[in-house]
Amino acid sequence: MENQKFEHRSIIKFLVLEGQSPSNIHERMTAIYGDSAPSRTMVFEWVPRFKNGQLNIEESPRSWRPISTTDEKTIKVVENLVIEDRRITIQEIAEILSISSGTVHGILHDHLHMTKVCSTWVPHSLTPLQRHERVEACEELLARYETEGNDFLSRIITGD
């Protein structure tokens, strides 16, 4: 496959040096190679390179790395925004921080483990303090049930 790419680029380079247009180069290569011909996009990508003097038919090495906005600082800022306003939307956070909504979504779900419940961001799991408080509340209710019995249960009111 790699050899075929080099072959295609060599032909494109030759036809550019002959003065052929990108459309003509693509037509000629499709007539000869059929389905294995380079795509129109690939031809139109390489023609300007060769016209501008690039002699090498290999891809330029990519020394750059995409910038990631999912760093500790951004995660902390997102967390603070959510703590300040539990009803803030992903889009609003993305606009405030000038990052993509997909990145914000990933931070909220993958890093902060939060989910949206009734348009409010809530932690997906309880903190150790919250777990301890719930256990204490349940133990108090159990102790009252053991001393008061069914009378205690008949006085409990629940709601949404």
How would you sum up this structure, described in words?
This protein has 160 residues and is mainly α. The chain has 3 domains: 2-51, Arc Repressor Mutant, subunit A; 72-123, Arc Repressor Mutant, subunit A (Orthogonal Bundle); 126-160. 62% of the residues lie in helices and 5% in strands. It is built from 8 helices and 2 strands. The protein has helices at 2-18, 22-33, 40-51, 72-84, 90-97, 101-111, 128-148, 150-154; strands spanning 114-117, 120-123. Strands 1-2 form a two-stranded antiparallel sheet. A hairpin with a 2-residue loop joins strand 1 and strand 2 (120-123). Helix 2 crosses helix 3 (40-51). The radius of gyration is 31 Å and the shape is rod-shaped. It starts with a helix and ends in a 6-residue tail after the last helix.
What's the short version?
This protein has 160 residues and is mainly alpha-helical.
Topology (SSEs and partners):
Blueprint: H1 2-18, H2 22-33, H3 40-51, H4 72-84, H5 90-97, H6 101-111, E1 114-117, E2 120-123, H7 128-148, H8 150-154
Antiparallel strand pairs: 1-2
Helix pairs in contact: 1-3, 2-3, 5-6
Count of individual helical segments: 8
Q: Beta fraction of the residues?
A: 5-15%
Tell me what the CATH architecture of the largest domain is. Answer: Orthogonal Bundle
The topology string of helices and strands comes to HHHHHHEEHH
Cross-sheet strand order for the largest sheet: 1-2
Which key phrases capture this entry?
single chain; 160 residues; mainly alpha; Arc Repressor Mutant, subunit A; 3 domains; two-stranded antiparallel sheet; 8 helices; rod-shaped
